[in-house]
Amino acid sequence: MTRPLAGIRVIEVAMWAFVPAAGGILSDMGAEVIKIEPPTGDPLRGLKIRGLGSTGHGFDLSWESYNRGKRSITLDLRQDAGIAVLYRLLENADVLLTSLLPPARRRMKIDADTIRARFPRLIYAVGSGVGVRGPEADKGGYDAISFWARGGVSSSLTTEAMDYPVGPPGPAYGDTTSAAMLAGGVAAAIAQRAMTGHASVVDVSLLGSSMWSMQRAIVQATMDGIERFPRSARGGSSNALVNVYRTRDGRFLSLCMLQEQRYWATFCTTAGRPDLAEDPRFATAAARAQNIAVCVAELDALFATKTLVEWREILARQDGQWDVVQHVGELKDDPQVQANGYLQPVDYGDGRELRMVSVPMQFDGAPLAARPAPDIGAQSEEILASLGYDEAAIVDLRVAGVVF
């Protein structure tokens, strides 16, 4: 199996989800990722949000998802001896990946200027909340506030009728999106160093990646001088073939036929309502836009006559684009998910197996295999020995509380 980053060593000094998820992607891509945890462990371990924490099946799913395939060493970086171990690790590393806030990095002498002066070939990659410059550069952030709230996503999904803004669909929604961008930035920096010898400082923020996702709306709002676009509870498009419709059994189908005139007549005929295509109110895109409420009402009534299973068979006979609004628990049975290996079994070697979502990038026609996340400090002694620490020195570090 191709692992494009095989031979690359990444040292991760990060907690929670955003930057560790980037490390997980780099690990799946073949990099050796050594995660440095404080003696108390990454606070993500055992965290429960909305009931989504450790499971009765013996897995901490957040931990496993974002720390896949790494090796763990515990180090107290508040002590000089802990920093000394980190510096030894960095001597043969390619990337330092961190989420620590700037004041902590300066205090520990692992800020970008200090590290780059000591290790000029090292790529320095940081994930921040709202960016590395400006009056809030030293401020932390989480996906629920920096990505979802501040970046305009929540407001854009919230209708006027709602009492409160729409919240994220689950933990780490913005973290994982931002992590993919940070991992991509690191991969680009590795390529740049190979071609030019220059080792970059890479920065991705939750706010920046949120704005990238929302760029179309942000650009127009900036150009038009408005704060937000009104959002209806459903639809709002002048194209009835770009909407969501309810089936007889209470499921939903999402239509996205952007070339509506191309698909309209065939859709109507296939769906059993050829009369709609002949109706002068709906015969052209302009006519449908002028009568959009009536047109949508006709399609609402039409879709309500049959079940999801029936509509899937009917819509498959025409060329317009559509899909089912699926539930997360249905994805394991999706034939496209199965055919492309988007959900893969990870063997823990103790009789347990976890079906884990693959990283979305694939190479040479195959998904990248995921591996279990490490127990806290599981490789501490092994890593220290590889750095030249003998047994007595390792014991001294443990006694001093530098290593757990």
Describe the structure.
It is a single chain. The chain has about 400 residues and is of the alpha/beta class. The protein is built from 18 helices and eleven strands. The strands form three sheets. The chain has a six-stranded parallel beta sheet with strand order 3-2-1-4-5-6, sandwiched between helices. It has a three-stranded antiparallel beta sheet with strand order 7-8-9, with helices on one face.
What is the secondary structure topology, with strand pairs?
Layout: E1 9-13, H1 18-28, E2 32-37, H2 61-66, E3 71-74, H3 80-91, E4 95-98, H4 102-108, H5 112-118, E5 123-128, H6 143-149, H7 153-157, H8 173-196, E6 201-205, H9 206-213, H10 215-224, E7 242-246, E8 252-256, H11 260-270, H12 274-278, H13 285-290, H14 292-303, H15 308-315, E9 322-324, H16 335-340, E10 343-347, E11 353-357, H17 380-386, H18 391-399
Parallel strand pairs: 1-2, 1-4, 2-3, 4-5, 5-6
Antiparallel strand pairs: 7-8, 8-9, 10-11
